[in-house]
Specification:
387 residues, ten-stranded parallel beta sheet, alpha/beta
Length: 387
Amino acid sequence: MPATASPAQSSATDVAVRHDWKRSEIDALFALPFNDLLFQAASVHRAHFDPNAVQVSTLLSIKTGACPEDCKYCSQSGHYNTELEKEKLLEVARVVEEARAARDKGASRFCMGAAWRSPRDKDMPYVLDMVRQVKSLGLETCMTLGMLDPGQAEALADAGLDYYNHNLDTSPEYYGQVITTRTYNDRLSTLANVRDAGMKVCCGGIVGMGEQRDDRVGLLQQLANLPHHPESVPINMLVKIEGTPLADVDDLDPFEFVRTVAVARILMPESYVRLSAGRQEMNDEAQALCFLAGANSIFYGERLLTTDNPEASHDKQLFNRLGIHPLDLRHEASDEAHEEVIKAQVAEQQAEDAGLFYNAMAQSEGGKRPAKHVLDKDTGRPAATEH
C-alpha cells in the first residue's frame, strides 16, 4: 500500500521555506518510496535552481593536524594516531597561489580549513590577509576554523569572508557518541555569531557514523529549523580513517545517503546542497542519483582536507556524460538572485564545454570499505576530509 502523503508532501513545487519542521513530517519523507521521494526533491530543486548547474568549490587545508578536539571521525584529532603529517599555518603567499590555481581550473569558491578548536589571536592577522587576497582574485571565500566568538566573526566579515563553515555533524541525541570536547550548543553559538556578523553559513553534517535514521532526521530538523537556512549544506559520507574510533563502522546503504540528500533538498529548498566528502567511495551512478535528488554543489580537486577526492578529469567526464555544467557565480549578484539569471546562464553555458567537474566515486566491492591511510602515496602530503 502506498505511503500516506503528509502535509510536507503536498505540491512539491509549492513547498514554502519553513523553519518549523516536525520530526514526524521528516520521518514521512524518508519513508516515501524511493522514486516518489526523488521526484518530489527534483521538483523542488527545479523550482529554485537550474537543475543542470552545479556550484564548484575547492578546499585547502591551511593548518593540518594536532587538533585538540576528539571528533571520532577526524584524522586531524590529536587524540588518535592516524599517521597524519602535521603542518603549521601555511604562508599567505602559498594559499593565494593555490587559490589562483583553483580559479584557473574553474572553481568559483575557495574554502580554507584549519584544524583548530578556535583561532588564536596571533593567527588572526594572517587568516584575515588570506581572506582579502583570495577575494581579490574574484573568488568567493569560505573558511572553517573551529568555534568563533563575536569579535572573531566580525573581523572575518570585515575582511570580506563570504561563507563560514561549521557543521553540526549529527543529531543532538547522537552527538555525544561522536564528540565530547565541545557541545552542540557551542556549535549553534558559533553559527549565531557568524549570522550576526553578516556572513553566509555553510553548515551540514556527516552520515554513516553508526547513527540511525532517526539521527539523520534529527540533524536535518536542526538545520532546517535554524532561523535562516544555511546557504550551503554539505552532506558528507563518512570517510573511514585508520586510527580513528570510527574506522570499522558499518557502511551506510548508498540509497539511504541519496534519501538524505533528497530530504535536505525538500526541507531547505533555496540552499545549495553539497555532495561533499565520500565521493571517492561512490560510483558514477550513485552520484548521478544525488544530483537528481537535488545536490547542486561539489568540491573540485584531488584533495579535500586530509582525504582523497575524485580526480578533476573524471569529474569533467561525469559532468559531460550527465549533461550538467559548473555554475559561474560571477554572473550572479547574490545567492538570492540566482533565479533571475538562470535563463541567461543556461543559454550561455550550454554553448560552452566548461572544464570543472567531479568524478563519480569508485564503489568498493562487497561488505565494508576499508579505512583509509591519510597520506597521499605520490606526494607524501595529506590527502582530504569532511566539510
